[in-house]
Automatic annotation (TrEMBL):
Domain Ribosomal protein eL8/eL30/eS12/Gadd45: 5-92
Highest classification ranks of the organism: Bacteria, Bacillati, Bacillota, Bacilli, Lactobacillales
SUPFAM superfamilies: L30e-like
TM ranges: none
A GO CC term assigned to this protein in UniProt: ribosome
Biological source species: Pediococcus pentosaceus (strain ATCC 25745 / CCUG 21536 / LMG 10740 / 183-1w)
Name of this chain's protein: LSU ribosomal protein L7AE
Gene3D superfamilies, sorted: 3.30.1330.30
Record carries keyword Ribonucleoprotein: yes
Domain of life: Bacteria
Record keyword Glycosyltransferase present: no
This protein's UniProt keywords: Ribonucleoprotein, Ribosomal protein
């Protein structure tokens, strides 16, 4: 379950253009070392989860596994299982909200 304050923050990130959505774009962002934080849903496919988490570990990108695809999709207005941000400020803000 994604808390309401996190959901609203993800929506703000999307509207401001600071959210990379979808597996291929997120993986590309991680590989190019632009991703500052990655959020993966709990119900993403196992092979996709492994691929994303392995890349995050290899490139030392912080990530969390949180909520469901449905929760994330409602928050950002797109059906997605993984998102990332390339903005340091939004990454820190999202981490802060997750850890509250």
């Amino acid at each position: 379950m994604i808390k309401e304050n996190i959901s609203k923050y993800l929506g703000l990130m999307r509207r401001s253009g600071n959210l990379v959505t979808g597996q291929e774009l997120v993986l590309s962002s991680i590989r190019s070392q632009k991703a500052k934080f990655v959020l993966v849903t709990e119900d993403i496919g196992e092979s996709s989860k492994k691929k994303i988490i392995d890349k995050c570990h290899f490139y030392e990108v912080p990530f969390t596994i949180l909520g469901t695809k449905e929760d994330l999709s409602k928050a950002i207005g797109q059906e997605r299982s993984v998102v990332a941000t390339e903005n340091n400020g939004f990454a820190k803000g999202l981490l802060k909200k997750i850890n509250e």
